[in-house]
Amino acid sequence: MTKSKLIGAIAQKQTQLSQKDIDLAVKTLLEQMVQSLENGERIEIRGFGSFSLHYRPPRKGRNPKTGETVDLPEKYVPHFKPGKELRDRVNKGGGYRVY
Amino acid sequence: MALTKATMAEKLFYDMGLNKREAKEIVDLFFEEVRTALERGEQIKLSGFGNFDLRDKNERPGRNPKTGEEIPITARRVVTFKPGQKLRARVESYVGSDE
Fold it and tell me: Parallel, antiparallel, or unpaired for β A69-72 and B50-57?
């Protein structure tokens, strides 16, 4: 499922707002989530999960083309930990996957 | 302070002029739609943010950490989050550490 399909699904469940409003709302939400992580602030959604940053120390890498060693600086990577309700619902769902 | 659904609904209220009830409803529907799709076995792709994927894990041996008793960890389906390029790039250079 993609962002546009998700927006369509929300629009169907909701009668007051236009699809255009929902489109803007979803984009606003996602941008706010990215900004929060960008500022090092966690996101906590009960029953869904939490997003946080994990630290990665500096390391030596290698350019796969030239074989040359390069210094890779320390960085932060986004991390998601599913909440209990999401874990339970996904695990007892149907036994097949649809992609 | 972590970002929560309440803060997200507030932003929709201030930025888009949705009323508070509508704003809360959209935020709830957003996370509920993602959960429902994952529950159905569908992967979610949110461009600019990341993908929520499903992985089927086989049963493996485990141990009760309290009693040391050996108990199998049953086969299960779990959610993983793969942050997109854009999100990774935006959090990479975060300086500071509250993690």
Answer: unpaired
Partner-chain contact B40 A98, CB within 8 Å: yes
Predicted TM-score of the model (pTM) = 0.89
Report the sign of the C-alpha dihedral through residues A35, A38, A39, A43, in that order.
Answer: positive
Nearest-angstrom CA–CA distance, A17 and A20: 8
Q: Which of residues 54-73 of B touch A (CB under 8 A)?
A: 54, 56
Interface mutation vs chain B, best among A88, A90, A96, most B CBs within 10 Å: A90
At B71-99, the pLDDT tens digits run 998 899 999 999 999 999 999 988 765 44
CA distances to A17, A40, B32 from B1, rounded to whole Å, are 30, 10, 23
Residues A94 and A34: their CA atoms lie apart, in Å, by 31
